[in-house]
Amino acid sequence: MSETRGEPGSGTEAGARFFCTAGRGLEPFLMREVRARLAATEVEYISGKVFFTTCSDLNMLKKLKSQFPLISSVSKGKLFNEMQRLINEDPGSWLNAISIWKNLLELDIEENRDCQLEKQIEEETLEQRDVTTKSENFQEEFQNDIEKAIDTHNQKDLTFRVSCRCSGTIRKAFTAQEVGKVIGIAIMKHFGWKADLRNPKLEIFIHLNDVYSVVGIPVFRVPLASRAYIKTAGLRSTIAWAMASLADIKAGAFVLDPMCGLGTILLEAAKEWPDVYYVGADVSDSQLLGTWDNLKAAGLEDKIELLKLSVIELPLPSESVDIIISDIPFGKKFKLGKDIKSILQEMERVLHVGGTIVLLLSEDHHRRLTDCKESSIPFNSKDSHTDEPGIKKCLNPEEKTGASKTVSTSFEARNHEFLDRMSPFGSLLPVECYKVSLGKTDAFICKYKKSHSSGL
Question: Region annotation Disordered: residue ranges (predicted)?
Fold first, then answer.
């Protein structure tokens, strides 16, 4: 749901309340992004979700590299009673959220129509009057779609579906279907909307657990993690973007991925930071062919150079590369074993002093490089932005005025202690490390800086 509120200190300009879902461990990256890209305030997080307030328009929301932006509301109290109260006593928040959602739907329809019209005009060989007629027909169809979409003043034709998730002890007391039914009936009674489980116009997302309840409306039909410019998916695009965002990429830099696979990291980096010299390398012909297909699909053939070579024999002068970003392969298909040290030595050699390396490491690789007995690490590091103004963690949703608290100093101290334990590899000093989820397994995004000449 949307909570319209003013920007702190402004007193006039109102902002809407949103939340984004994030893969486990990616919350700090998302918090930094919404602050930088959307000028977000009141940034808070819980596991897997980041809440924020922004006055940015919907086109800016589309540029987020995270997953699902949702119009959001956080409610607290007895579950069913609180949900019903939100519907019956605060209908304005629902209508406001739907108004924002409707505006985006209109924008999407208009953009789709423009693309279809442009394509059809290009292919059309008829006379100009026929093209004009087609343009008029498209405009008429567009207006009809808008009228059929969502009318917040006349909502008799509005259909909806409730998608509910329960976790914690709540899951033992109620099923998601039971909760969805209760909420759905309350919505139908109060607003007169019709339920449609197969093809609804409106999706209502609800997540209940032991300490909070979240209600939201998806802003986009397709997750932002589904990149239209990636033909063949390799590494998760959200992970790839997070790695690139850590690398301190500047215009004119030389960025290398010596084990590029299908090129997802380079694609994400080149889309965000275009004025950079990118080189991708791999020993596999099939991987390089897949990368080339992705580059063509994204229109980046002239932005990224591809080479076939081994990561332990890079044909590059020492200290010639500004930034190295790479997913160190692991899993059943890839077993590097002790080669990880040889790989790091060669990366260290070609990286110039002050340069940055960002690696995605398996838990096993991480243990080898850190000499730590334990593979666990708090998801934040010392350079996380959670200690900046306006970024908080939702620690106790039961508190009305103190629903958010800044991350504790003891939490930050644990990260300092962990980084102190990390054994530097040659001239590479650890800067940040984040444990992230890859679905069935976990991995670490680790950032290193080269402190001095390695002499290799």
Answer: 380-401
